[in-house]
Amino acid sequence: AFGIGTGLYLAVDVAKSIYETTKQLQSLDLALKMVSGSQEEFVSNQVFLKSLAEQYGIEIKGLTKNFTEFWVASKGKLEAEQIKEIFTSISKSVAVMGLSVEQQDSAFLALQQMMSKGTVQAEELKKQLGNALPGAIKAATMAYQTLHPEMKVTEKFFMEQMKAGKVLSSELLPELAKAYEKLYGIENVKRAETLQAAQERLANSWTDLIRAMNESNNAGLAKFLKSTMEMLGNFVNFTKLLFKDEKQLQEYFKN
Prior knowledge:
The chain has 255 residues and is mostly helical. The chain has helices spanning 2-36, 39-56, 60-74, 80-96, 101-117, 122-132, 136-147, 155-163, 169-184, 195-215, 221-242, 246-254. The radius of gyration is 25 Å and the shape is elongated. The model has no long low-confidence stretch (mean pLDDT 85).
């Protein structure tokens, strides 16, 4: 009974994980498809995200959510390739720094809010992005210097410009993302090999398996889940039999 109970518990846990991941993937795919504008762009974005997740070991579901929100905030202000370049550079930075999922989300949220507001503010740059990715003010100063080579840009001068609302997000963010790479010395890094990255790649393998089962022409996930539920039902019924007396067992098999 103990062995059956343990097996039943594990089976339920696996089924629950498959069910929850399937729901998340369907929701994320729908949102990305709606904002992509066309089927071709949707597929391109999916390929981009899968490659990015593998390169830098970032959990694919969270990455997709953050990219979708950043895409919405940036569309019309930046070209598609610029959006992807910014997202790639920041993804590389958070991966190499070994940030937690919560810190990654905070960094991407800061970018999204900066693009939504149109100008860079201290709240998003210093408190949100800076708390997640150290060196935000220094990287932003470097980026602003690149945009204005005729000036001598100091951190104090940059802060004054930012406070005056003169730092446009659409101008600064492409250079800010590159500045982070220079600040961390990771311009030539093509793949993250941290423990965090390895853990997330393992999690992504499970997500990829569920997606593959869901998209299979021969045995879609719906069929798999149905079979799983039937198997669990049989487990439950069999377990009940163990606790029936002989008369009850006879009646059960008669029915």
